[in-house]
Every structure is written in structure tokens, then in C-alpha cells.
Design a protein that fits this description.
The complex is a heterodimer of chains A (332) and B (330).
Chain A (H helix, E strand, L loop, with lengths): L1 E5 L3 H11 L6 E5 L5 H4 L18 E4 L3 H14 L2 E5 L6 H12 L5 E5 L6 H9 L8 E9 L14 H4 L3 H17 L2 E9 L10 E8 L4 E7 L6 E8 L2 E6 L12 E6 L5 H4 L5 E6 L1 E2 L1 H14 L9 H17 L4
Helix pairs in contact in A: 3-4, 4-10, 7-10
Chain B lengths: L2 E2 L6 E6 L5 H4 L2 H18 L18 E6 L2 E5 L6 E3 L5 H16 L9 H22 L7 E5 L5 H7 L6 E5 H5 L9 E7 L1 H4 L3 H10 L1 E12 L4 H6 L13 E2 L2 H10 L2 E7 L5 H10 L8 H8 L2 H13 L5 E8 L1
Parallel strand pairs in B: 6-7, 6-8, 8-9
Antiparallel strand pairs in B: 3-4, 4-5, 5-10, 9-12, 11-12
Helix pairs in contact in B: 2-3
The structure holds nicotinamide-adenine-dinucleotide.
């Protein structure tokens, strides 16, 4: 398979590393007009022309800032039919609708969106405990995901409304919304509060979103760019126990060691353990989420089918939530 | 690019707040009688043995002299810290010894009978839950199970009764080692719970077991490890270290090496042991002559809450002496 990477920043490099070692990949091309291929040591793969030679590739990886995402995904679908797009799927709902149209016009396509967090080991392990896994049905979810911004926060394209389409909710919060949907199915927004009290970039630096599932299960998200201690944390309350995931395996390690606490309800031993049940904590040390995404996408392309995760339907569900939050809070 | 902690390991440590007492699962006092029986039986089994182990099954390096456990000399693998009985027994004689000891353990003559309900609750059921959870996580339904053990096994009825697995076949580990054929050659799962501790050829047992697993099949291993707190403190004075039950006492690293060399990718390496601190305390109470540093003594004399926190730290840091490993056949 011949793969084209558009955008060679953090994610472009990550995808490049993975594709280089993949047995299904025969050739790689990299397009990014703003980098020096020599510095990056990618002279061989680098495409120097101002035009993208779409037809020379079988699959496209869109790893650019959000303002060009939709346009590239649409072109990629048209010419190659197979596109892997980093989240978010465009700057807004309208851009995603454009992608949807392009996908409908090309029924044999494979389109995957990079919601890799649901493939993290703590999330996958949590899923195995739900329902018949021993903890019963989910009663509620609560998640907090945030970073501290840092001195270059204001300069980043992520916080320029015209380029990114939104603030921390669209950048990081989208992952937690995807995780909520992974456990609860489609959600709807009940209420939301957005704030931009610290960074004042005209995009939200804090988002509080209250949601509910079709079965009425509540979920609550705090997405923040003012969490001075980097945080990834979610809780799932179940009929027969609870799960608390925290920490996230990342390159920097700044979110802490990824772990999952499993607690079991113990009414049966009330006198002994009421409100203080036995817990087990699992610590994880390997994140295969990027690898799994790539493997599944390439396999889906080879088998001419849709992928099993990161689908257009899931992307639409999660973008509809963000659209609704922005509409409600009149920031859209 | 996958971000790895230790090479290859996905799920590293498991910490649990499940507590039970040493008396409930392996009381030191009761163990002494059983241990004496084992030592006498081992002495007999090794009476005509004139071969010694030379190389470590984990690192392949030459073994070095370590210490004596009663009359029995143990060697040490320097690279991994694993310990091995120096004498290399005759396979058939060793198989008979393991069977005899296992029958004795199952008889009314040992403490094992009295604590059966407590062991079921605190040892067997958690093991069963662990196996089920891992299979669920890896989406393996109706798994066929190859239980590799010296029968009788307390776990077999639990495996069969729980209605969770497909075929459950219990095989004698010594027979398996002799490559005696078994019907189903491609199991989803193999259980080697403390088997590697007692078998005379652990490397070969792993290889033969692997031959009976499907590609991608899972192996579950538990062991007492020399890298755990009570083992490190008590060394040869740890009365839980004796042949034939602990013919081999791998370190955590040694077990990892052995499994990886046998073609398994490590999915879980954890030491969720609960009893390290209590074991050391029990030895001290019995008057064992162990030289402890001032810090170690202060730690062991600390209030229960501190000891529990320390035990939790051992679990989290993979420093407890009860190890659990899950590997996937490549
Ligand atoms: N799944 C995750 O956890 C995760 C993590 C980080 C980023 N992302 C997503 O990946 C995408 C890229 O983020 P990043 O962190 O790599 O950003 P980045 O700023 O590090 O890299 C973006 C690259 O795109 C290049 N670029 C800009 N305009 C271009 C154009 N028109 N054509 C080609 N290249 C162009 C830039 O020169 C830059 O090298 C974003 O959509 C982001 O949300 C996802």
C-alpha cells in the first residue's frame, strides 16, 4: 500500500514511525510545505511539489491543523478512497457534513477518525468489566481531561478560532466525549458552561458539559486548559461496583502512570466494608493505541470494509455534541 | 510508536486491597509438618542422584553456588537472581515424588484440609476471577483450558463448575513433560499455577505446553519469586522455600526471561501478593535468626496501617513474592 501523510508535526511523525514498520506499507509520501525535510531526515519520502500527487497513493493520513482537515479528507476520499483523519473531524459540524457527503459519493471508501483514547489500555480494560464482566450496567460517568497550556499556549494554532474551530473542548474534550459514547452509546447535551477566564484567546479554556444517554444515564465532562496538573481521569459507576481510570500513557508521561481502579459493591458485608469496598488497581505500561488504529485501518483498507472503530457515525455523534454545546453557549 | 514501559509488558502491576491472614491460607505452624515430610521424601528421591544443574534455564548462564536449604544445596542464576535446587533429579523419580507429596497434601494428615474453605475464598476464587477477567479482556469466549498440574488439583472443580470455559483438561505436568500425547493439541489457554516452581525441567515444560496452545493462546503462570520482599529478607531461612514444591524459585525477571525465550509475549507481569510482611513477621515470631537493618525492623514494628501501605507499595512496585504472569503465544 502507498501511504500519503499530510502534515508532518507531532501526529504526522507518529504515523510515519508506525507506517515505516508496517508490513502492508510499500511506500510513504510526506506532504508538509512548512517543514525542512533535511532537518527531519525525510528527504526520500518528502514531496517537493506544490501540488499533491493524490493518484500516486492508496491511502491518506490527514495530520494537519483543523482548518485544512475537511478539505484534505474530501480530496483524499475522492482520489484514493481511503482516509485516516486525526481528530477532530473538521472544525465544525458543517465541515463534517461535507466529509459525510464525500464519503457517500464514494461507497467503497474506508474512512477512520483517530479517536485513539478509547484504545488506551485503561479504557479497554474498563470496558471488559462492564455488564457481564462483573460490574453490571453503567449508572453514570464522570470525566476530567485537561492540561496546563504552557507559555506558548496563545501562539498555538489550536487556540486560534479561525484555524481550530474551537477551544479545549474540541481539542481534548472530544476524546472524553468519545469515551463516554464508547460506554454509554449516543448521548445528548443537557447543559453546558464554557469559560475563557484565563487564556482569553476567544476559545473556551474550560468546558463543563452535562449529558445523558438514551437510557437516561448521566455523564459529566470537565475539559480544561487551566489544569495546572495535567489530568486524565474518569469514573464509571455501575450496578455492582465502579471503575476509576486515571493517568495516561503519553510520550511526556505528564499525565501520570495509567491505572484503573476496580471496586466492587459490598452490601453483603455491610458492617465490615460499607462505603469502603475492596479495590484492585491495575497499572499499565504500554500504550498500543496508535498501533491498533493503524493496524485496523490498513486491514480495513485491504479487506475493502469500514473499520470497527473511529467510524464516521461515531465522529458524527461526537461532533453533534460539540455543535450543541457551542450553540447552547452561543460560541459556535 | 507504542510507548513501552518495560519491554513488551502491557499490564505491569496489580495492587489489591483484598486482605486475608497468613493463617487462613498457609499457616506457618501447620506448614512445618508438611515441610518436614517433603524434605524427607525429597532426600529419598535424590538419594541416587549424581547429576547437578549447570546452566540457568532463564539466562543460559552458568549457575553459581547459593545457600543450603536444610540439607539441600541451591544454585543461583546471577543474571536474574533465580534460585534452583542444585541436584538434578531423575525425571521418573521426581514425578513420583511430586505425586506422592500432592496426595499427602490432599490427605487429612496436613493442615491443608482444615483451611480448605478459606483457601477457596482467598486463593482459588481470586485466581478464577483473574483468569476469567483476562480472557474477557482478550475477547476469548468459551476458552478451552489445559490445566498443567500434579493432580489432585483444588482448582479443577472450580474450573469445571463455573460454566465459563469450554473443555477443561487437567494433565499431570510430569506426563506432559514426557510428551505423552493428549487429545486436543490446540487449547486457548494453559494454566501453570506454581508448576514451574516444582518441575525438574521448567524450560521444557513451557515449550511442551506451548505446543498444545493455539497461536495467540494465553498462558497463566503463578509462582513464588525470589525477588519478592519476604524472599529477599529471609533468603534460605524462609520456610516456604523447600523442595520439591520450590525446586525452582525464579525471580520476576527470571520468569519473564523464561517465558519470552519460550515464545511468549508478556501481557501481564504483576506481584499482587498480600502476605510478604506477615510472613516475615511470622518468622520473627517463631524466633528465626534473621539480621535486619534498623529501618527494616522499624517497618515491621510499625502499626498495621503502615504495614498494609507497605504491602500495597510492594504490589505496585512488583516487589511482592507472589507473581502472576500472562503470556500470549506468538
Ligand atoms: N489523537 C490524539 O491524541 C492527537 C494528539 C495530537 C494531535 N492530534 C490531532 O492531529 C492533528 C495534528 O496535530 P499535531 O499535534 O500533529 O499538530 P502540529 O502543529 O504538531 O503539526 C501540524 C503540521 O501540519 C503542517 N501543515 C500546516 N498546514 C498544512 C497544509 N496545508 N498541508 C500540509 N501540512 C500542513 C504543519 O507545518 C505542521 O507540521 C490535529 O488535528 C490534532 O488535533 C491528535
Amino acid at each position: 500500500m502507498r501511504c500519503l501523510i499530510l502534515g508532518y508535526g507531532y501526529m504526522g511523525r507518529t504515523r510515519h514511525q508506525l507506517l515505516k514498520g508496517h508490513s502492508a506499507v510499500k511506500a510513504i509520501g510526506i506532504f508538509d510545505p512548512y517543514i525542512d525535510p533535511k532537518k527531519e531526515n525525510i528527504q526520500q519520502e518528502y514531496l517537493n511539489s506544490p501540488d499533491i500527487p493524490w493518484d500516486a497513493f492508496d491511502a491518506v493520513f490527514v495530520c494537519t491543523p483543523n482548518h485544512v482537515t475537511a478539505q484534505y479528507v474530501i480530496e483524499g476520499l475522492k482520489h484514493c478512497g481511503n482516509v485516516f483523519c486525526e481528530k477532530p473531524p473538521g472544525r465544525n459540524w458543517e465541515e463534517l457534513c461535507g466529509i459525510d457527503e464525500a464519503a457517500s459519493a464514494r461507497p467503497d471508501h474506508t474512512l477512520v477518525f483517530g479517536f485513539n483514547h478509547r484504545l488506551h489500555p485503561s479504557v479497554q480494560t474498563a470496558k471488559a468489566f462492564i455488564g457481564k464482566g462483573g460490574l453490571g450496567e453503567v449508572l453514570y460517568m464522570k470525566g476530567s481531561y485537561g492540561k496546563s497550556g504552557g507559555s506558548k499556549y496563545r501562539e498555538s494554532w489550536r487556540n486560534h478560532r479561525a484555524t481550530s474551530g474551537g477551544g479545549i473542548l474540541l481539542d481534548q474534550g472530544i476524546h472524553m466525549l468519545d469515551i463516554f459514547q464508547f460506554f454509554l452509546g449516543p448521548l445528548q447535551v443537557v447543559d453546558a458552561v464554557l469559560a475563557d477566564l484565563f487564556w482569553k484567546c476567544d476559545v473556551e479554556d474550560n468546558a463543563y458539559v452535562l449529558l445523558k444517554s438514551e437510557k437516561g444515564q448521566p455523564a459529566f465532562l470537565h475539559s480544561s486548559a487551566t489544569l495546572w496538573k495535567h489530568t486524565f481521569h474518569f469514573e464509571i459507576g455501575c450496578q455492582d461496583g465502579y471503575l476509576t481510570a486515571s493517568g495516561l500513557l503519553t510520550k511526556s508521561g505528564s499525565y501520570g502512570r495509567e491505572k484503573l481502579v476496580i471496586g466492587r459493591r459490598q452490601f453483603e458485608e455491610e458492617a465490615f466494608a460499607l462505603g469502603n469496598p475492596r479495590e484492585e488497581i491495575i497499572y499499565f505500561d504500554r500504550d498500543e493505541s496508535w498501533q491498533k488504529e493503524i493496524d485496523e485501518f490498513l486491514q480495513a483498507v485491504q479487506e475493502k470494509r469500514q473499520a470497527t472503530y473511529g467510524t464516521l457515525t461515531e465522529a458524527k455523534q461526537v461532533m453533534a455534541l460539540i455543535r450543541d454545546v457551542y450553540q447552547r453557549t452561543q460560541r459556535g | 510508536m507504542s510507548i513501552r514501559g518495560r519491554k513488551g509488558v502491557n499490564m505491569q502491576s496489580v495492587q489489591t486491597s483484598h486482605l486475608f491472614s497468613l493463617a487462613g491460607v498457609k499457616p506457618l505452624e501447620g506448614l512445618l509438618r508438611y515441610r518436614d515430610h517433603c524434605l524427607v521424601a525429597t532426600e529419598k528421591a535424590l538419594a541416587h542422584c549424581n547429576q547437578r544443574r549447570r546452566v540457568s534455564p532463564c539466562s543460559g548462564e552458568e549457575l553459581k553456588q547459593w545457600k543450603k536449604v536444610g540439607k539441600f544445596e541451591y544454585f543461583r542464576c546471577e543474571a536474574s537472581g533465580s534460585l534452583f535446587l542444585a541436584d538434578l533429579p531423575e525425571p521418573d523419580i521426581w514425578a513420583d515424588l511430586l505425586r506422592e507429596v500432592s496426595r499427602y497434601r490432599d490427605s487429612s494428615k496436613t493442615f491443608h484440609q482444615e483451611i480448605r474453605p478459606s483457601r477457596a475464598e482467598n486463593v482459588l476464587k481470586p485466581k478464577l476471577t483473574w483468569i476469567k477477567n483476562v480472557l474477557r479482556l482478550h475477547n476469548i469466549q468459551n476458552a478451552s483450558i489445559l490445566e498443567v498440574v500434579t493432580p489432585p488439583s483444588d482448582l479443577t472443580p472450580f474450573l469445571k463448575k463455573c460454566n465459563y470455559f469450554g473443555e477443561v483438561l487437567t494433565v499431570d505436568e510430569s506426563d506432559l513433560l514426557k510428551q505423552e500425547t493428549i487429545r486436543n493439541h490446540a487449547f486457548h489457554t494453559a494454566l501453570l499455577l506454581e508448576s514451574l516452581d516444582r518441575i525438574y525441567d521448567p524450560k521444557n515444560l513451557l515449550q511442551v505446553t506451548s505446543q498444545h496452545l493455539k497461536k495467540g493462546g494465553l498462558i497463566f503462570v503463578t509462582a513464588l519469586v525470589s525477588s519478592g520482599f519476604d524472599m529477599m529478607l529471609l533468603q534460605e531461612k524462609n520456610i516456604y522455600l523447600f523442595p520439591p514444591d520450590r525446586t525452582n524459585c525464579f525471580s520476576r525477571k527470571g520468569l519473564e526471561q523464561l517465558l519470552e525465550k519460550s515464545g511468549f509475549e508478556l501481557l501481564e507481569v504483576s506481584t499482587p501478593g498480600i502476605l510478604d510482611v506477615e510472613i516475615v513477621k511470622a518468622h520473627l515470631k517463631q524466633g528465626a535468626s534473621i539480621s535486619l537493618s534498623t529501618f527494616e525492623r522499624a517497618l515491621l514494628d510499625a502499626p498495621e496501617e503502615v504495614c498494609n501501605d507497605f504491602q500495597a507499595f510492594l504490589q505496585k512496585s512488583e516487589l511482592s513474592s507472589f507473581a502472576r504472569i500472562v503470556g500470549r503465544k506468538k
